[in-house]
Amino acid sequence: MDGPSGSGKSSVSRGAARALGLRYLDTGAMYRAMTWWMLQQGVDLTDPAAVAARCGEPAIVSGTDPDGPAIHVDGVDVAGPIRESDVTGAVSAVAAVPEVRARLVALQREIIGAGDIVVEGRDIGSVVWPDAAVKIYLTASPEARARRRSAEVAGSTVEAQQEAMARRDTLDSTRKTDPLSMAAGAIELDTTALTLDEVIAEVLRLVKERT
Ligand SMILES: Nc1ncnc2c1ncn2[C@@H]1O[C@H](COP(=O)(O)OP(=O)(O)OP(=O)(O)O)[C@@H](O)[C@H]1O
Ligand SMILES: Nc1ccn([C@H]2C[C@H](O)[C@@H](COP(=O)(O)O)O2)c(=O)n1
């Protein structure tokens, strides 16, 4: 499951994994965990060489339970801190560093290799697992995505969310290494006018049809 920020990848992937009895992996959380660690260490995130030099150090461990996705860095539970604005504002710069991607993609492939999993991110169908049985590219209008996100962040406005998401999507889709893109063979699913339950139902229908 790939797509831009706020398109519904996490909610839909978790819902589909639950319904299908599969594991679930949030690869964005891994980039966020790496970013959290870099911030804790005081690494200069504007210097890709500094990020590359340190990215092999943290032990990042991802859980795969769709009912309680967990993520730890060096044994610390970072599920909460990785959603804070400092990490969200910095993660695209860290995710653009090729050495970071190489390390996290290798970890992701280890987890996916055990099978029976729904994986969400930006480059899953194109780079991480191009042979996935079903590849879905989730979209929604920028307004719908911003409205959904602003509903879950207290005190935020739709306009501010839309601006922040546009900035992150531009960075994620224009970076040189593994940018956000629709993979060959992916099915595009526009969720703008659909409820979450309708999107999950459509994903389950596609999985049944294709597997
Ligand atoms: N079809 C939908 N209709 C209404 N709300 C939705 C729909 N899909 C997702 N949402 C809500 O939109 C918000 C963003 O969804 P979610 O976190 O799953 O997106 P995402 O693509 O994983 O975002 P990010 O890449 O930024 O982590 C959540 O509050 C979720 O409940
Ligand atoms: N496979 C992935 C997953 C995520 N990223 C980057 C791009 C996002 O801005 C950031 C956080 O992801 P989110 O939690 O918002 O889904 O991580 C990536 O480059 N590749």
From TrEMBL:
Residues 165-176 have a biased composition (Basic and acidic residues). It is an enzyme of class 2 (transferase). It is found in: Cytoplasm. GO terms for biological process: nucleobase-containing small molecule interconversion; pyrimidine nucleotide metabolic process. Residues 1-208 form the Cytidylate kinase domain. Residues 150-176 are annotated as: Disordered. It catalyses: CMP + ATP = CDP + ADP; dCMP + ATP = dCDP + ADP. ATP binds at residues 3-11. Keywords: ATP-binding, Cytoplasm, Kinase, Nucleotide-binding, Transferase. Its EC number is 2.7.4.25. GO terms for cellular component: cytosol. This is Cytidylate kinase.
